[in-house]
Structure formats: C-alpha cells, structure tokens
Amino acid sequence: MAGEAPELSAEERAGRPFPVSWDQFHRDCRALTWRLNEVGPFHAVIAITRGGLVPAAIVARELGVRVIDTVCIASYDHDKQGDLKVLKGISEDVMKLGGGTGKGLLIVDDLVDTGKTGKLVRAMLPDAHFATVYAKPKGRPLVDTFITEVSQDTWIFFPWDTALSYHPPLRDGAA
Ligand SMILES: O=P(O)(O)OC[C@H]1O[C@H](OP(=O)(O)OP(=O)(O)O)[C@H](O)[C@@H]1O
Ligand SMILES: O=c1[nH]c(=O)c2nc[nH]c2[nH]1
Ligand SMILES: [Mg+2]
C-alpha cells in the first residue's frame, strides 16, 4: 500500500545471516564435546527444546551419557521473541541425580542470543554446567562452554530450519 514501509525479509530484519550446514553443525558439536570431556563426567544431559535436542543427542553420544531429559521452552516466533513459556520442566528423576541444584548435570542448547532462555534454565539448576554451540555477546556470560561466538546482529540459520535453494549470481545483485 502507498506510504507503508516495504516488508522486510527475515534476513533484513535479523541482520547478517550465518547459515550452518549439517556437516558444520556436527563438527561444531564434536568440538564442543572435546571441551566438555575435560569438565565432566555428567550424570545426565538436559536439552533445551527444541533447538537443544540436536546438539544434545550428539554430545550425549560422544560423552557416553544415556540419561537425557528435556526442558521445553518456547519464546521465539521465527525471529521475534515473546514471553518465555515453560511447557515442561525437568523430571524429578533427573533433579534427584543433580542433588536438587543441578550438580553434575549438563544443560545443552544450540545457542544463546539475549540469554533469556539460558537465564531461566540456570535459575532451575544453578549448579549445572551450561553448554551451547554458538553464543552471541548478550548471552555469552551465562554459558560455561561454547564453541563459536557470532555478533549480536547475526542470525544463525540452522540446517533443520532451512533448505537448499537457488541463489542469484553476484553480478545480478546478489549479496
Ligand atoms: O538467548 P535467547 O534470546 O533466549 O534465545 C535463545 C533461544 O532461542 C531459540 O529457541 P526458540 O525459543 O526459538 O525455540 P526452539 O528451540 O523451539 O526453536 C534457541 O534455540 C535458544 O533456545
Ligand atoms: O534459528 C535461530 N537463530 C538465531 O540466531 C536465534 N536467536 C534466537 N533464536 C534463534 N534461532
Ligand atoms: Mg531453543
């Protein structure tokens, strides 16, 4: 409509795109596990769903941990963050394994951005170790171990959220 601002693409709204392939993600998860192996052993892995499920599976496999729990939190509608909703908490069994405070437990997520999700889970398990594959500066202080830091204006595109598509040549104006 005349006078209205043009609609922005997801990439324009979210700043610089940082696409991650399955191969790259697997390599980064393995690198994360190398670091975690120095910190453990861990009684259980807790994945922050849904994004934490994929790294948690890889990390748990590499560390030989077979007790895996989830804490289910929703906040983003694509790149817009709303109120955080805890849809499922940590199970009683796993809480007991961590002595009620999370000692010896490993929390895994794909990334920290603003840190709001991580802060909420840390409050549930203050003594747990919190690991993410990627970290943006605002959330970084909350994480104990991560692999790659990206700038705050970067949007990470994960392989489970994306698909291969045609990209126009540079000479036709592609970025
Ligand atoms: O540091 P924050 O600003 O809180 O953002 C980080 C969280 O956002 C994403 O999850 P999302 O809420 O999009 O849900 P999903 O994992 O189900 O995709 C991501 O997987 C982290 O859990
Ligand atoms: O796919 C995603 N990429 C991101 O950079 C991000 N930040 C918060 N939530 C996110 N989800
Ligand atoms: Mg998530």
TrEMBL record:
InterPro entries: PRTase-like, PRTase_dom, Xanthine_Guanine_PRibTrfase. Pathway: Purine metabolism; GMP biosynthesis via salvage pathway; GMP from guanine: step 1/1; Purine metabolism; XMP biosynthesis via salvage pathway; XMP from xanthine: step 1/1. It is a peripheral membrane protein. Its EC number is 2.4.2.22. GO terms for molecular function: glycosyltransferase activity. GMP binds at D113, T114, G115, K116, T117, W155, I156. Mg(2+) binds at D110. It catalyses: XMP + diphosphate = xanthine + 5-phospho-alpha-D-ribose 1-diphosphate; GMP + diphosphate = guanine + 5-phospho-alpha-D-ribose 1-diphosphate; IMP + diphosphate = hypoxanthine + 5-phospho-alpha-D-ribose 1-diphosphate. Keywords: Cell membrane, Glycosyltransferase, Magnesium, Membrane, Metal-binding, Purine salvage, Transferase. Pfam families: Pribosyltran. Guanine binds at D113, I156. It is an enzyme of class 2 (transferase). Its cofactor is Mg(2+). Xanthine binds at D113, I156. 5-phospho-alpha-D-ribose 1-diphosphate binds at R50, G51, D109, D110, L111, V112, D113, T114, G115, K116, T117. It is found in: Cell membrane. Residues 21-166 form the Phosphoribosyltransferase domain. Purine salvage pathway enzyme that catalyzes the transfer of the ribosyl-5-phosphate group from 5-phospho-alpha-D-ribose 1-diphosphate (PRPP) to the N9 position of the 6-oxopurines guanine and xanthine to form the corresponding ribonucleotides GMP (guanosine 5'-monophosphate) and XMP (xanthosine 5'-monophosphate), with the release of PPi. To a lesser extent, also acts on hypoxanthine. Belongs to the purine/pyrimidine phosphoribosyltransferase family. XGPT subfamily. Homotetramer. This is Xanthine-guanine phosphoribosyltransferase. It comes from Bradyrhizobium canariense.
